[in-house]
Amino acid sequence: MAAPSCTSVYIQLCVSGIAYYFTVLLLSRNRPTIYLDNFNVVSNSLTNNATIYLDLRIQNENSGIAIYYEDPVKLTITYLQSTVSTGSNVIIERSAIKGFYQGNGEVKHIQASVVIQDLFSTNEQRRRLGETRVSLYGPVKVMDFVVDLEADIKFKSIENKKFHLMVGSAVEVNDNTGTSVLKTIQMKYASGSNKWGVLQWLLAFPLVILLEVVVNSAFWLAFRVLVFVSLCQPNDTAEI
């Protein structure tokens, strides 16, 4: 008598697991984690030009869902001048990066560079020789930049919904070497989080129960159909 009971419990656990798996698959939508790596500024004292190099590292945090990044992905770099007025900030680059597809759990690397003329004043340029890597005047200072990334994405699922991403990060660059003070910076979202919160997981439980009822009903219906088919089969036993 114990065997049927154990089998029933085992089937129920399997059904619950299937329902939970499909619930997570349908609902989990972790936004990508985006890092800014190796932000470098190289200035040329002869031409008064500056070249900015940066690497973007985009991590798809979803183990079972791919992401489509629609064209274009917008990259903006702003230089914060060392003045009191915020109106003196200079947007030095607005780039349009071609959209791309990112598989589940994949990492996408994007390298970008931009050449700017007359970014710094003459006095500033004298001490910003990133190409020499030599400290010329007094203690080390920093240059301040802001990097923003904006994109429209879609998750590869039955839900055809578009999400708008806005991330940004402040970058401090060593005045003498031209390299960022922090080698890797995680860009922050303008609002919300890129991870599922506790409330979202709690709201998923009603759907788990609903899917479990649906799966149980499907198994029950399939069993009844099999029983009906077996009873309707003709008896081919020969009479003696």
| Count of DSSP-assigned helices | 3
- Beta content comes to 35-45%
Helix-and-strand structural type: alpha+beta
The CATH homologous superfamily of the domain at 31-192: ApaG domain
Poorly predicted parts: 125-138
User: What do we call the CATH topology of the domain at 31-192?
Assistant: Immunoglobulin-like
**From the coordinates shown, what is the CATH architecture of the domain at 31-192?**
Sandwich
Rg over CA atoms: 29 Å
Number of strands: 11
**Major sheet attributes:** 7 strands, antiparallel
Spatial separation of the terminal alpha carbons: 38 Å
CATH top level assignment of the domain at 31-192? Mainly Beta
Helix percentage: 25-40%
Tell me, briefly, the overall form.
rod-shaped
The helix-strand sequence is HEEEEEEEHEEEEH
Characterise the protein shown here.
There is one protein chain. By secondary structure, the protein is of the alpha+beta class. It is built from three helices and eleven strands; from the N terminus they run H-E-E-E-E-E-E-E-H-E-E-E-E-H. It has helices at residues 2-27, 122-125, 198-232; strands at residues 33-44, 49-59, 67-69, 73-80, 90-97, 100-102, 107-117, 142-155, 162-174, 184-186, 188-189. Helix 1 (2-27) packs across helix 3 (198-232). The model is unreliable at 125-138 (pLDDT under 50). Keywords: Membrane, Transmembrane, Transmembrane helix. The chain crosses the membrane at residues 7-27, 198-223. This is Late embryogenesis abundant protein LEA-2 subgroup domain-containing protein. Its main location: membrane.
